[in-house]
């Protein structure tokens, strides 16, 4: 069994994530194999800017006809290649009750109130969404209309909205099955029917689900089974049916983990990550589930993954060494970079260069950088 260090793992992942900025079509980046998450303002756009050799501007993702924005893994919004959608939808069909229950984030108590199986709850909601979303409409309007079509047990009293509506996670995981996508760059969230959407399919595809796990391990490996299950948003027990073949078992500083066997050579000799990047909140790199590998220091980890108001992360030569935030003030974008330890002048200069790319991607002609 191969033993590797945490440093090797970090270098391997940086390369797999395209953070060395190789030339070529950005859509060929491996991160699009799983989708580029867009949970906060411009996070997907800034994630692309951290990986793209060419210019990234506010319309780069939204106006690319090869991409579409949907609620996918864990019900989070992701940009996916349109060509990948059929397999993506198949991979998200629950394999069994445990899988469906985990995906909608319900407990047995909520499920018992419906008198249905978790799979039936999911696809009943998907069919209702399909009936409602026949044109572009706000998420709020869609939620209101869907709630009226569903049994009362599918809804809850929302304090924030001061209204009763369908469970948020249930609506999110059902949307793609119902042929519903998101409009990019719209706030509040806006839904629309997928072009050429087919019939609602309840047929599970273990092979498609397995490929999601394999791609996670390829991008964020070596990793444990629980890490892969956490990304997919499913129960660990489900992995017995979908755990990929042709995996190699390795040890990362003594911890058991897995990687596609054809990536062992790349793991043993990854390119040296001599680079500086400003990664946005929810970037695919920091979305890896084994946070102790990414940031071993618990105090630093709390700064990178805050419960509320997550900052971006400062990547320096293979380590996450700080955080950053951006605030718009009129026509200027103000960035504050907070390193955990003093940085070399060359690293600070490189970070300021990255700040300029962030400003361009956000559509600001001027910006300032403050070192905290």
Structure report:
It is built from 16 helices and 16 strands. It is globular. Helix 16 links the parallel strand 15 (332-339) and strand 16. Helix 4 (85-91) packs across helix 10 (206-220), helix 7 (118-132) crosses helix 8 and helix 10 packs across helix 11 (225-232). It has two domains: 2-193, no CATH class; 276-371, no CATH class. A five-stranded mixed beta sheet has the order 12-13-14-15-16. 37% of the residues lie in helices and 21% in strands. The longest helix is centred in the C-terminal third of the chain and has 18 residues, at 345-362. InterPro entries: AlkZ-like (IPR009351). Keywords: DNA-binding. This is Winged helix DNA-binding domain-containing protein.
Structural class: alpha+beta
Mean pLDDT over the residues = 95
Please give the share of residues in helix.
Answer: 25-40%
Largest sheet: 5 strands, mixed
Span between termini: 44 Å
The total of helices stands at 16
- Poorly predicted sequence stretches spanning 5 or more consecutive residues: none
Q: So what's the overall shape?
A: globular
Our estimate of the beta-strand percent is: 15-25%
Query: What is the number of domains?
Result: 2
Report the count of strand segments: 16
Give the neighbour order of strands across the main sheet. Answer: 12-13-14-15-16
Question: For the CA atoms, what is the radius of gyration?
Answer: 21 Å
GO molecular function, one term: DNA binding
Organism: Amycolatopsis saalfeldensis
Keywords: DNA-binding
Pfam family, one: AlkZ-like
């Amino acid at each position: 069994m191969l033993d590797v260090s945490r440093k090797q793992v970090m270098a391997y992942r940086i390369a797999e994530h395209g953070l060395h900025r190789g030339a070529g079509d950005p859509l060929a980046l491996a991160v699009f194999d799983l989708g580029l998450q867009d949970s906060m303002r411009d996070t997907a756009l800034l994630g692309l800017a951290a990986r793209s050799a060419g210019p990234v501007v506010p319309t780069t993702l939204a106006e690319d006809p090869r991409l579409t924005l949907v609620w996918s893994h864990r019900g989070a919004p992701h940009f996916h290649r349109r060509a990948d959608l059929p397999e993506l939808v198949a991979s998200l069909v629950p394999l069994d009750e445990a899988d469906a229950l985990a995906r909608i984030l319900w407990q047995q108590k909520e499920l018992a109130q419906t008198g249905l199986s978790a799979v039936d709850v999911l696809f009943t909601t998907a069919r209702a969404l399909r009936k409602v979303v026949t044109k572009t409409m706000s998420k709020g309007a869609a939620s209101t209309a869907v709630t009226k079509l569903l049994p009362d047990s599918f809804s809850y009293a929302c304090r924030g909205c001061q209204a009763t509506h369908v469970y948020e996670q249930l609506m999110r995981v059902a949307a793609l099955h119902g042929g519903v996508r998101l409009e990019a760059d719209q706030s509040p969230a806006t839904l629309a029917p997928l072009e050429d959407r087919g019939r609602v399919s309840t047929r599970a595809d273990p092979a498609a689900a397995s490929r999601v796990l394999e791609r996670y391990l390829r991008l964020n490996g070596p990793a444990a089974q629980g890490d892969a299950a956490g990304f997919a948003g499913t129960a660990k027990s489900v992995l017995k049916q979908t755990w990929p073949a042709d995996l190699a078992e390795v040890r990362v500083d003594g911890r058991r983990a897995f990687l596609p066997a054809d990536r062992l050579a790349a793991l043993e000799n990854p390119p040296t990550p001599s680079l500086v990047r400003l990664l946005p909140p929810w970037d695919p790199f920091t979305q890896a589930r084994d946070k102790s590998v990414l940031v071993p220091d618990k105090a630093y980890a709390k700064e990178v993954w805050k419960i509320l108001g997550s900052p971006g992360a400062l990547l320096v030569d293979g380590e996450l060494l700080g955080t950053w935030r951006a605030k718009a003030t009129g026509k200027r974008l103000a960035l504050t970079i907070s390193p955990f330890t003093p940085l070399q002048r060359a690293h600070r200069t490189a970070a300021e260069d990255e700040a300029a790319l962030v400003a361009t991607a956000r559509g600001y002609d001027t910006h300032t950088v403050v070192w905290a």
